[in-house]
Specification:
138 residues, alpha+beta, 2 domains, 4-stranded antiparallel sheet, 3 helices, 25% helix, 27% strand, rod-shaped, membrane
């Protein structure tokens, strides 16, 4: 429990009860520390004018509690779940794209070079694609 920058700790008994004695009047915050679970903090108001009057409310929803029964909001995930292996994610990576481009060039460039004829006429070089010209003649 936190009260005016004072921390008080109380252990949980086997019956799932916790008792803290000599708590002064005022507003206190109950925070539960548990490995693997997350609990919402609870604000407890202890009245100085009316001895024995206690009001508790969840801090996140501001819902007033009739009984102080705390249930975990969620299980804590300390580690990220690893994504399963995917061939597409490997191919979409920069390294996969570079390897794919290089493999494509290894097979496509020789086929393109077969269709290129270089004609030297003085200082000018003309490139003719025979396959393109054959399609035009048809």
């Amino acid at each position: 429990m936190t009260a005016f920058l004072q921390r008080r700790a109380c252990a949980l008994w086997k019956s799932n009860d916790a008792v803290s004695h000599n708590v002064p009047a005022g507003t206190h915050l109950i925070e539960v520390s548990s490995i693997g679970y997350f609990f919402s903090p609870v604000r407890v108001d202890i009245s100085a004018r009316n001895p024995g009057y206690i009001q508790a409310a969840l801090t996140e929803t501001r819902r007033v509690l009739n009984e102080l029964v705390l249930e975990p909001l969620k299980e804590e995930q300390y580690y990220e779940v690893r994504e399963p292996f995917s061939v597409m994610s490997l191919l979409k990576s920069p390294m996969g794209l570079m390897v794919g481009f290089m493999v494509l060039m290894v097979f496509v460039m020789p086929k393109l070079m077969e269709n290129i004829v270089i004609i030297n006429a003085g200082s000018t070089v003309a490139l003719q694609f025979h396959s393109f010209l054959q399609h035009l003649k048809c």
